[in-house]
Every structure is written in structure tokens, then in C-alpha cells.
Amino acid sequence: MEAFALWVKEVVAHLGYTEIVFLMALESSLFPVPSELVMIPAGYRAAQGELNPFLATLCGGLGSLIGASANYALGKYVGKVFLLAYGKYFLISPKTFHDAEQLFLRNANVATFVGRFIPGIRHLISIPPGVFGMRLAPFMLLTTLGATLWCGVLTALGYYFGQPVIEAVMAYTHEAALLALVGLLVFVVWFVIRHRAKRNAVSTQEPMP
After folding, report:
1. Interatomic CA distance for residues 112 and 166, integer angstroms
2. pTM (2 decimals)?
3. Half-sphere exposure of residue 175, counting CA atoms within 13 Å on the CB side?
4. What is the rounded CA–CA span in Å between residue 52 and residue 111?
5. Beta-strand runs (E) in the chain
6. Fewer Cβ in 10 A, N or C end of the chain?
7. First-last CA distance in the chain
8. How many Å separate Cα 53 from the centre of its chain?
9. pLDDT per residue over 2-17, tens digit each?
10. pLDDT (tens digit per residue) in 172-181
């Protein structure tokens, strides 16, 4: 893992449009490449006149879409089959899978778009749409919009604030990832409790036969 981190830093040191696409594709797949370590330096290099900030942002969005599409395909062609075949060994029955599928699809658009802004979640947010059969067109549209907007924000940070922001990101990347994970757990617990409360409210309102 340390060798991989050193390799990423070496690539970032010679950052160009191709490297942005490649690293952001990794970032949106299962590889631990923080987008902050790619797009903020890209913004800084743009401020130095070495890159075009708008083109860098678009390259970041393109790379994110490529990586997210790979995760979508992984969920669709591997994840769903695996869960349906072996989910019972993880206490996931076909009914549980179906209930989770319906729950996700009711919130798929929001989850796919908002997930692009959450550190640590961006690596995984594209797998559930594939597993639960979200349509490809809205998935690609929302992923591209969310990822490009996020890349634009990071590029602007690097462009206007430069080296101090890069140093802060380098120093606190692990802390930020941990904070994002805690936030995700809190959100999941809140979401499950809220969903159960709604379901219980509906069941109590149903007339007795």
C-alpha cells in the first residue's frame, strides 16, 4: 500500500490531462486514490499556466465516469449473481435482497448523485446501482454531473488557494477518510431507523381484515 501511495504521488508530480483521467478512473473504482490528491494539484498547476482548469475538470469527470462504469458493471455482472447465489451465507435471503433492491431504487438518483461528494464513498457508490439494476442512462448522467461538479470544486481550491491546501490535504487525508466513514455509518443507521419507522407507521394504519 505504501508503494502504491508513493507511485500516486510520483504521477501527481507530473500531472497532465491523461494522468488526471487515469487517476480519477482509479479513484472511482476500488483503488484508494483520493480525488483531493489529484484535482487540487491539477488546479494548482492550472494557476501556474500549465493546465487549463476547465479541461482539467472535464478530464476528472471523464475519468470518474470510466471508473464508476467499471464498478457498475462489477455490481451488475458479478455482485448480483454472487448475492443471489451465496447471500444466504451472509444472512441475505432473496426476500431481503428484493427489499433492499426496492429501497435503493426508490432513492437511486439521490444516492448516485450525492454519493459523488462523499470522501470514501465515491469508491463504492457505483456498485449498488449495478447490483440493483438502476438504468444505465440516468446512472451515467448523474455520475457525470456529480463527479464533474466535485472535480470543479477541488480544481478551484487548488487554483485559488494553491500549495497550502495541497499540504493540508496531504497531512489530513487519512483523518478525513475516517471522518467520512463515521459520517456514513451515522447516515446508514439514521436511514434504516427512518425507513423502519415509516414502514411501521404504514402497517399500523392498515385496516384490520
Report:
1. 27
2. 0.73
3. 5
4. 31
5. none
6. C
7. 60
8. 22
9. 554 565 566 666 788 9
10. 555 555 555 5
